[in-house]
Amino acid sequence: MHQRGMPARTAVTATAVAVGAAALTELTGLASYVDRHSTAFSTSSAWLGAAARHLPGEPVAITVRRDGAVVGLAALAVRRRRGVTRVEVLGGGLNDYAELFHDDVDAADVLAEAIAAWIRGHRRWSLALSQLAPEDPVLAGLRARLPGATVVAGPPMPRIDGPGTTYRLSRNRRRKPHTALNRLASDGLAATSLEVDDPEGFERWLPAVIDVRRGRDHGSGRRSHLDDPATRAFYEAFVRAAVAEGRARMHLLVVGEEVLGFATTMTDGATLRLYDGRVAQDWLRYRGGIVCEMAAVQRAVADPGITTFDWLRGRTEAKFGNAEIHRCELRAASHAWIGAVDAWEARARSRVKAMLPDAAVRRIAER
């Protein structure tokens, strides 16, 4: 207790950087801190732990401690390519939401300084921290400390605010699942809609769901994230952890053991997020993906505890609602030419993909 007449005690603040196995150990030990601050499944300790264990690159944990207690944490990943150290949030492009954790604005400022000092210690580097909240004070601190840093808006993230209250599903949308189910019945197929939220059920259906995901991606002329063994291991590890926590639920449309479509949701407090979903490539006629997605939306409508249904990144005709948000990305580089090369490579990839016929892209994806 501070006594009158005595100088006020100054808190001791310290920062530390852990890389590789040491970072995984740090993140594991700080799981409860992460989950107290996390606002979405992709900022949870389960997600970060799975990313650190399975995804390419080395995990990095930068911590801020005040009198020994953690008050700030950045979970990053680092890769080295062509002599350049490339830094991103842990989870990289798979993240729909990312977060630089801090207890208060003072901790945020110290964390920004620690991140900037660490990255400036590399000779050649580029930084791309995507899907951060625009109002994040760590973001502002980094932008001020890294010359040439820019912040750009992320992709649109459509959502339904007030499902079942301020937002009402149209009659046409409500009819779509019935139309698909009637088509199955008229073709003599006995289809069943399932909801799975237990570990045993997920283990039974997960291999088939992964096959549906990969098959549909290939049929659409693109590689699937799950073609990569490391990303598939990450996906499986996170889903299993989310099921164990009671966060995940899978909606399925099946005929016997055949999966016609699926939609996997994650519950984050009062928000229900559509984590993943596909229609089976060989069963497109029956629109199993839409049936399952609408089952997820109807679940949000029926649950008074759910105030938002989040479609996550990307605007498509299937994603309807009454609101839309954008996260943002911080970009910076040690040398202007690094940023220029990164931008040129991104444009070149887009041009090549646009020039390839769909059949050629499918052949590439199936290799």
TrEMBL record:
Ranges of residues in domain BioF2-like acetyltransferase: 172-318
Pfam families documented for this protein: Acetyltransf_6
InterPro entries attached to this UniProt entry: Acyl_CoA_acyltransferase, BioF2-like_GNAT_dom
Domain of life of the native organism: Bacteria
Protein name: BioF2-like acetyltransferase domain-containing protein
Organism the protein comes from: Nocardioides humi
